[in-house]
Amino acid sequence: MDAFVGGLVYLLVAIGILVTIHELGHFLAARACGVKVLRFSIGFGPIIFKMTGRNGCEYALSAIPLGGYVKMEGENDLDEEQKELPKDSFKAQGVLKRAIIIFAGPFFNFLLAVLLFTLNNMHGVTIGYPVVGYVLPESSASSAGFKTYDKIISFDNKEVNSWKNIMIEIFDNMGHDKNIPVKVSENIGKGPVRELSINLKNVKLNRNDDPLQKAGFIPCFGKITNEVGAIVENSPAQKASIKVGDIITQINGVKIDSWNALRDIIDSSEIRDLEMVVERDGVKYLTTVKPVMQYDKLTQKMRPFVGVGATIEHIEGLSENIKYGFVDASLKAVDDCVDMSKLVLVSLYKLANGSISTENISGPIAIAKGAQESANIGLFFFLTFLAAISVNLGIFNLLPIPVLDGGQLMFIAYEAIRGKAPSIAVQKILTIMGLAILLSLMVFSVFNDVKGLSY
């Protein structure tokens, strides 16, 4: 219940901020273009609270907090004749002014994202350098020949310096039968350079999938030793009396000198008993671990499960925390916004061609969960999450679907080209179709959210 209430609160905060900024864009643009605004509402449906400003505009808080609207003079006037429209009417304005008013909502969402990214960049951003920690077996990365501690220095002939760069490249190329040239430097960038080729044709994202992991990459966060760093409650390892701090030195007579070696032996064991030699306080013990088959979200396969976690030792040069000055932070924020926009647009394209499962279409429950999880980590994680959602909202509203801003811009563009607006009958039919599409998307996204609660 606490998690539900917390998620609901953060959802309302997030939507409240995003909707207010979006509608503020419409409001300010309308006022600047000389259009009379009748109502500025946060939320839909019955009005809970309202007040009238000196300019005659009614400011309202409505019961359904999943959006908002700005009601302008003459905006929804579908009278065919429209003989004498007031000068301050929306429909009385030229196509350019109307386009500016409509576009201002999504534009303010992008401005909000840039502002939030700027604040985060000034606070400090951790750059994770693209050093491979582990290569998942039977993956694209494994087939390409990547190894632990390889530092990726170029991907598809583009210089890369972070895992974010790699993720964007994977997004761009997954699903395509293309051999992508990659350069890596061994030993965390201190060793010789190798040239590899990776094919991402078989990479497809289902719900909650990490693009890096689907391609076979586990980023390096430090040196993974064969010392036990964690034990899962009631796991085979705990039942075999293995404890945190134990060093696993041998399994079934095979010497263990790394965590990757340990993992490979466990993976190949299926569910056969594992005779383990563990060292504790300088004394060696022999114990038998009985693995169980369990679904692994990382590989999305059934794998032998033992229940031990590794100890990770710090390695210099894997990441760097950078704090930017205002100007550099702002410039980087624009780049961040552009990168996020590219990811959203590429995701839409990949949804269309099947490279990304439609299970990834998320709704309010997923947003609430993401908002709460990011807020629990820290304020600036929440602000970054909010920036990402703001970019998504801006792009979504620009889709050419009637009832969305993009649909209205489509009508205005038609009018600018043809010299007259689409007929009222056509507008009504397309609006009904757009509303049906939007409602279908909402229902489908909520269905995915509920289904995703089991992940």
What features would you describe in this structure?
This protein is an alpha+beta fold and 455 residues long. It folds into 3 domains: 2-122 and 376-452, no CATH class; 132-221, Pdz3 Domain (Roll); 224-310, PDZ domain (Pdz3 Domain), CATH 2.30.42. Helix content is 45%, strand content 25%. The chain is built from 13 helices and 18 strands. The protein has helices spanning 2-32, 95-123, 140-144, 163-173, 186-189, 211-215, 236-239, 259-268, 326-353, 364-377, 379-397, 405-418, 424-452; strands spanning 37-52, 58-72, 125-128, 132-135, 151-155, 158-159, 179-185, 193-199, 217-219, 223-231, 247-251, 254-255, 274-280, 283-289, 292-296, 301-305, 308-313, 319-322. Helix 2 crosses helix 9 (326-353), helix 2 (95-123) packs antiparallel against helix 12 (405-418) and helix 10 (364-377) runs antiparallel to helix 11 (379-397). The radius of gyration is 27 Å and the shape is elongated. The two termini are 18 Å apart. The mean pLDDT is 87.
Summarize the structure.
The protein is α+β, with helices and mostly antiparallel strands and about 450 residues long. The chain contains 13 helices and 18 strands. It has a four-stranded antiparallel sheet with strand order 6-5-7-8.
Walk me through the topology.
Elements: H1 2-32, E1 37-52, E2 58-72, H2 95-123, E3 125-128, E4 132-135, H3 140-144, E5 151-155, E6 158-159, H4 163-173, E7 179-185, H5 186-189, E8 193-199, H6 211-215, E9 217-219, E10 223-231, H7 236-239, E11 247-251, E12 254-255, H8 259-268, E13 274-280, E14 283-289, E15 292-296, E16 301-305, E17 308-313, E18 319-322, H9 326-353, H10 364-377, H11 379-397, H12 405-418, H13 424-452
Antiparallel strand pairs: 1-2, 3-18, 4-9, 5-6, 5-7, 7-8, 10-17, 11-12, 11-13, 13-14, 15-16
Helix pairs in contact: 1-2, 1-10, 2-9, 2-11, 2-12, 9-11, 10-11
